[in-house]
Specification:
Layout: H1 2-27, H2 47-54, E1 60-67, H3 72-92, E2 96-103, H4 107-115, E3 121-127, E4 130-136, E5 138-144, E6 147-151, H5 160-173, E7 177-182, H6 195-204, E8 205-210, E9 222-226, H7 234-245, E10 249-253, E11 257-260, E12 265-268, H8 274-281, E13 283-285, E14 289-292, E15 295-304, E16 307-321, E17 323-324, E18 337-340, E19 345-347, E20 353-359, E21 364-367, E22 387-388, E23 408-415, E24 439-444, H9 458-471, H10 478-481, H11 495-535
Parallel strand pairs: 1-2, 7-8, 7-9, 9-10, 10-24
Antiparallel strand pairs: 1-5, 3-4, 5-6, 11-12, 12-22, 13-19, 14-21, 15-16, 16-18, 17-20, 20-23, 23-24
Length: about 550
């Protein structure tokens, strides 16, 4: 009888729990709630998106064109995208309408997608133990009034929210920030950047190239200077000085050393005049090279008795800067910056707001030029100081037991910059004096973090775009783009720290198991003793 009653109670409880669970699922079907425990909330809509969407003056229609059958990696992006679009609908309160159009055998739907800018792609499908290729769609359009923006194909989920929100912002506000790349002094132009990255830049900014010639038109919202290698003319420096001292914004990435990766040597770059201009403003870039134990390894191939050997070496000039100022908006949500062949940067200005954006680790040191050659200059033709940076060089030789790091590798200075020129240079037509205004300069001790022959980590490109947006006085979308980062290096441990972690991993689990067994044993003894006191031993 008791067993039957117990069985009925358990069955009733199980049915009741199942009913409650089913009812909760039905009631929550139309609710959009998600607990996001990730650092930075990468699966939650950013407050900047909420602010923009809640203030839309007219409805926005987002149409997703997607094939029914997708490869596994694309299907995962599809699930994430649909969750994001549901969030947009929820926070839009009727201002955002989402349409999901599945493209199958209906040619009219495929023609509609192509007409609106979504491109068909060839998917590799593995199904029913066979491999086949099929044409499919996975892109979206955003329509606001009579204007439309399009993402032709969604290849990854890294910056989906930023891509959508920035396009909505562009449709609603219709004003693109103007970013100018300085080409004077042999500086790197847009062609030196990764073409895919340039295409992304063009979706967010109006890009121009600026020669700083006399009589130039109105300069853009922010200027970018990447690795100048030749001397600027006085007229060009005068134009740049007027822009900065008048409250302009400048991003400057200088290479004080010319690095040759074929011969693995570094030589000083000829002075360009920018060094003196920055020094007058209160910023200096050393011609030394920073080495850091917290660095990236590299694979090196070399011949040995006719055989090609490949070795992985820890290459100290490839600095992974994980010490970032999280209060500075462009790096607030980034984990690290990869800064190859970087030089120290310092702020000498007595006033203004200075920020050290990125530092090397405490286990870092600098390698200066050879003695007897002035920093960053040529004594005589062919008399360069050469710095050996071969991957098998003993970089640690001569380094003190306690390195003198960290070094500032990227800095920002905000102040009213005093004019470098008290009068126009000879031959330059005097211009009306520019009213002083607070300017902003960001200086990085290398341009190779974004100008490189090989792909850099995504965090580098995000940092560059964030800086451009912040300098152009439009920081509202920075936090959205910064949500997706790909790699966070661990801090470098000392030899004793590594030994502690190693032996803790070996000894701690069995020790915890023994302690847990002892605890259970002691608990059972106490329970038995309590039963004996309460009921007796049970022996006659």
């Amino acid at each position: 009888m008791k067993r039957n009653r117990l069985f009925l109670n358990v069955t009733a409880a199980a049915l009741l729990a199942t009913g409650i669970f089913a009812a909760a699922n039905l009631l929550s079907y139309n609710l959009n709630f998600r607990a996001d425990l990730t650092r930075g909330g990468i699966y939650s809509v950013n407050p900047a998106t909420r602010k923009l969407v809640s203030a839309l003056p007219a409805p926005v229609v987002i149409t997703l064109y997607v094939s029914r059958e997708l490869p596994g990696e694309v299907a995962a992006i599809n699930d994430y995208l649909r969750n994001i679009l549901r969030d947009y609908e929820a926070i839009g309160s009727g201002r955002i309408k989402v349409r999901i159009v599945e493209t199958g055998n209906d040619d009219s739907v495929a023609k509609e997608a192509v007409a609106r800018g979504v491109v068909p792609v060839v998917f590799d499908i593995f199904a029913k133990e066979k491999y086949e290729q099929r044409n499919g769609f996975f892109g979206l359009t955003i329509q606001y009034k009579d204007k439309t923006e399009c993402i032709p194909f969604i290849s990854n989920a890294d910056n989906l929210e930023y891509d959508i929100t920035s396009r909505i912002n562009a449709l609603v506000n219709g004003i693109a920030k103007r970013i100018g790349f300085i080409t004077a002094g042999g500086a790197k132009s847009l062609e030196s950047l990764d073409p895919e990255f340039v295409s992304l830049l063009r979706t967010q900014f109006e890009l121009t190239e600026v020669g700083l010639e006399p009589g130039s038109k109105e300069l853009p919202d922010a200027l970018i200077l990447l690795s100048p290698s030749r001397k600027f003319s006085a007229a060009q420096l005068y134009a740049l000085d007027r822009y900065v001292s008048g409250g302009g914004s400048l991003f400057c990435a200088l290479d004080r050393l010319d690095v040759n990766l074929r011969g693995f040597v570094a030589v000083p770059v000829e002075p360009t005049g920018i060094e003196d201009l920055l020094a007058h403003y209160g910023l200096e870039v050393s011609s030394a090279l920073v080495m850091d134990r917290q660095s990236q390894p590299m694979e090196v191939a070399r011949k040995n008795n006719g055989a090609v050997l490949r070795n992985i070496v820890q290459y100290y000039p490839l600095v992974s800067a994980g010490s970032l100022d999280r209060l500075f908006p462009p790096v607030a949500a980034l984990d690290f910056l990869f800064l190859p062949f970087v030089s120290p940067v310092s702020v000498t200005a007595k006033d203004g707001i200075s920020t050290i954006i990125a530092r090397s680790s405490p286990n870092s040191w600098s390698r200066p030029l050879a003695a007897g050659v002035a920093s960053g200059t040529r004594d005589t033709p062919g008399a360069f100081a050469e710095l050996n940076i071969g991957p098998f060089t003993d970089f640690i030789k001569g380094v003190p037991a306690r390195p003198d790091g960290p070094y500032a590798l990227a800095v920002c200075l905000q102040r009213i910059f005093p004019p470098y020129f008290s009068a126009p240079p000879k031959g330059v037509v005097p211009a009306p004096p520019a009213p002083p205004g607070q300017g902003r300069i960001i200086v990085v001790g290398t341009s190779r973090f974004v100008v490189s022959d090989f792909r850099m980590p995504d965090s580098n490109y995000i940092f560059f775009m964030n800086c451009a947006e912040w300098l152009a006085l439009d920081p509202s979308l920075i936090a959205i783009r910064s949500k997706a980062t790909d790699f966070a290096p661990l801090d470098e441990l000392s030899a004793s720290g590594k030994a502690m972690v190693k032996y803790a991993n070996i000894l701690l689990p069995p020790l915890l198991a023994v302690l847990a067994g002892l605890a259970v044993w002691r608990f059972n003894l106490r329970r038995r003793a309590g039963n004996v006191r309460k009921f007796g031993s049970g022996r006659k």
